[in-house]
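Example record

The entry below shows one chain as it appears in the dataset: sequence first, then structure tokens.
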Amino acid sequence: MLIMKIKSIIACGMLLLTVGAATTSCEDMFTAENKLVSEELAPKDTLYQVMGIVKRMQKLADKSVLLGEIRADLVTVNSDVASTDIQDLHDNNVRFDNLYNKPSDYYDVINNCNIYLAHVDSLLMSHGDYYYEKEICAVKCFRAWCYLELVKIYGEVPYITKPLTTADAAESIVASGQKQDMLYILNQCINDLKDYALKDENNALRPSYGASWSGISYANFFIPVRAMLAELYLWKGTCTGEQADYKDAVRMYHDFFNFPGEERGIVPSANITGVASWANRSHMGNPTTNNTYPINRFSLGGNQTMEQVGVIPCDTSSYYGNTSELRTVFCSLYANNYYPWVIPSQRIRAISTSQVYWYYQYVQNPAYSMDFSTNPNDYDSPDYVGDLRLPSVYYTMSNASRSRYDANLNSEMSFIRKWTAGNLMLSSDQKNPFVPYFRVSILYLHMAEALNRAGFPETAFAVLKHGLTYDVMNDRSIISQQEFDALCEIKSYGFANIESKYENNSELSSKANSSFVIWNSNKFESPAIEEIGQSWLHLPADAPRNAIMQIGIHSLGSGTSSLNTFYYLDDEETQSHKREYYELPDTVALPRRNPTEEQIAAWKESIEALNAVIEQNKEIDAEYAEYLNTPEVKQKRQARVARLILDEEALEGAFEGHRFYDLMRYQKQEGQFQTTITLPSYISEEYKTSEDNMTGKPWFLTLPSR
């Protein structure tokens, strides 16, 4: 038996490594205590240890968000009220004693994972090969997630898979001075997990224990292995620049979204929930917007569980210990005198207002569509120009009724509604109940990123503009035949994936089935846009039951992106290289009865002429497709899509902890990554602001010195 919580020094710094996997009470979620580590564990003990690891993950929830967001360019810190630690994060001047610079908390989880994995082997022998397979997979995913976070933060860290049960063992790691770089650690984590993706399981590989806590199922405490592998491969491709690594990422994202019976789409249900849009065409005087975006995408209830890809459950009362303080950072509360520590920066406002909101509704023939004004004077608030996600998430309201009685209280309250599940009136002791590992829409954006870097800019752009469905994949004006054929070579990993509409075409079925191009038509559906009086955001009448509506991610805040002429892949210069089509000649009509030989001959001649022109137009298409596939044009397209993706990651992922690492990946992928931070040149040119808390500062924090 080994007593828990042995302190040790690791990685040239004071890193607390907890020896056991014990837990203390977390309301009624963690009621059991296991204060000893034994090599002879009973089944009940393994449950306690796995849930103990979940509890230790709570310490990482806020750190992972704030390290990835406050150091980046989408927020401004109120130095009058924010803590010194938050201010230092924003200045990218992070001291060793900063509250959020604690690699020990990550290694605490890692060591508990190592201990669990080392001792569970004996249980596998006594209870069967697969008795603890779910738990082993879950624990390995926790460990991989922690290592991915560590290398994103520090660049190089010690990689340890053996349990450290004594101070001497930890000291030996310190004495060795060994640290591994990002690529090495990514490879180790991938090799540790990839065999699980061969299994014909997905959610079945996540423990559930048949219960829930605070409305969150136990299964949702754990990270799906295919989603974890997809993220690891994306970062690996970022390190190597190899298309093969990006293709592996594409494969894993696709397989996660398309796993039979567990499909996940951009819209969490077959209606308009989770989309920020104008409720009517009036945007002046008293604008009316549909504010289901923050409520339905950042809560855990009903279909919204489909949006959160695993969450870290947090205590909802400080009485129990590990609570999330993100609401104090981002929102007005009595505890901070209604002065939030962090508000949106001018950069995110500039990115948001630069978008063109495009409205579409099929009213009559012809259809009605329009782009909304880009003049801020036409709106009550300039934030309503362009994309609507920022004004849906960042909400301000007067606090005059309270502040007039207390001069210390802010007269205006503001909320980042992502961290309030849409609520506006919160008491200071109401803590955020969870922090997600990933969200579906963020993973779709990461898949688009991998697609683009793997050489598929058309499909990556389709993720942004249209959403992936059977119809989109088979529309050659969206995805060329050449790109479609190449996508058919990316095969699903570990399960068969077929499309019923290919059954009558043996050649296409053989080529396409079990590949990336399969977005099952019995599950994924594009919205109907040509029904009189209907909003474009609804499913066709003949859509399959329980269909998932797919839209372009840009449509989550910028309207009908699939029809928006301002949201394009190829600019006018590129389009000018396509020759105009030849006009199709009229054909001769045959009489219904008893045509003469002369009439038949004339009809055949007209058909031959028509076919000849059709072939000429096909040649124009082939010629243009060949031009688009030239290295120069393809590179140009990929560069444009990469920028659109980075902007979309800002619009969709702001305030969630992604921005710093999105910029890091972009700079690495563009070959512009240096020891110190430089921002993408187009960001500085297109979204100029006087704020720059990043340039010249180091990308990676330094591990605490011994």
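Notes for this example: The radius of gyration is 28 Å. The CA atoms of residues 49 and 116 lie 7 Å apart.
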